[in-house]
Amino acid sequence: MASKQPDHEHREDEDAPAAEDEDTGAQVVPIVKLEEVAVSTGEENEDPILDLKSKLYRFDKDGSQWKERGAGTVKLLKHKETGKVRLVMRQSKTLKICANHLVLPSMTVQEHAGNDKSCLWHASDFADGELKDELFCIRFASVENCKTFMEMFQEVAESQKPKEENKDASAAAGLLEKLSVEEKKTEDKAGEEKPAAAKEENETKKDEEKADTEKKDGESDSST
């Protein structure tokens, strides 16, 4: 008859701690050596003048509906050398570019009807690697952020006008102001000359009346 092993012996075997891995001193050399790579964002030569969290939409002409481009950070970046400003927006998680276009003098931004936290504008966008005419709508978390974006966008668009055009506009404004001043001076002078002419006319009339009176008096004396 086979003898039975006590159960506590099996429990001791199960509870016994596993042997720790021994340090053999061997060194493992990596097969592939990874070197640190500098990641370029393309924004190194630009200064951010605006940075706001938002959600961007584009209007799908084929489907006649708005489609979301992504949620992330919209930036206005000014080039350090050329002074040109572009709008760039990336998705917050994937960093995929949602919008990428220059802010041109001809561009205007307007508030979205019925939503004071959103605004619209047209642009020739290069986010997909080729120029496309897009109608964008961007929505912010607050009315203040939306107003800040609109004001900065319009300010940048105005600043991108050629200097000669700005110079001509200033010259035209100065000429109009000069003409207005000269016209006012002419009116004032005419107003001053009118009373003088009336006074001179009255004096002439009095002289004529005096001469007529003296003539009549002379005739009366001679007849007497």
Automatic annotation (TrEMBL):
<dbReference type="GO" id="GO:0006913">
    <property type="term" value="P:nucleocytoplasmic transport"/>
</dbReference>
<protein>
    <submittedName>
        <fullName>Ran-binding protein 1 homolog b</fullName>
    </submittedName>
</protein>
<dbReference type="Pfam" id="PF00638">
    <property type="entry name" value="Ran_BP1"/>
</dbReference>
<keyword id="KW-0813">Transport</keyword>
<dbReference type="GO" id="GO:0005643">
    <property type="term" value="C:nuclear pore"/>
</dbReference>
<dbReference type="InterPro" id="IPR045255">
    <property type="entry name" value="RanBP1-like"/>
</dbReference>
<dbReference type="GO" id="GO:0015031">
    <property type="term" value="P:protein transport"/>
</dbReference>
<feature type="region of interest" description="Disordered">
    <location>
        <begin position="1"/>
        <end position="27"/>
    </location>
</feature>
<keyword id="KW-0653">Protein transport</keyword>
<dbReference type="InterPro" id="IPR045256">
    <property type="entry name" value="RanBP1_RanBD"/>
</dbReference>
<feature type="compositionally biased region" description="Basic and acidic residues">
    <location>
        <begin position="179"/>
        <end position="224"/>
    </location>
</feature>
<keyword id="KW-0811">Translocation</keyword>
<dbReference type="InterPro" id="IPR011993">
    <property type="entry name" value="PH-like_dom_sf"/>
</dbReference>
<keyword id="KW-0539">Nucleus</keyword>
<feature type="compositionally biased region" description="Basic and acidic residues">
    <location>
        <begin position="158"/>
        <end position="168"/>
    </location>
</feature>
<feature type="region of interest" description="Disordered">
    <location>
        <begin position="158"/>
        <end position="224"/>
    </location>
</feature>
<keyword id="KW-0509">mRNA transport</keyword>
<feature type="compositionally biased region" description="Acidic residues">
    <location>
        <begin position="14"/>
        <end position="24"/>
    </location>
</feature>
<keyword id="KW-0906">Nuclear pore complex</keyword>
<dbReference type="GO" id="GO:0051028">
    <property type="term" value="P:mRNA transport"/>
</dbReference>
<feature type="compositionally biased region" description="Basic and acidic residues">
    <location>
        <begin position="1"/>
        <end position="13"/>
    </location>
</feature>
<feature type="domain" description="RanBD1">
    <location>
        <begin position="27"/>
        <end position="162"/>
    </location>
</feature>
<dbReference type="InterPro" id="IPR000156">
    <property type="entry name" value="Ran_bind_dom"/>
</dbReference>
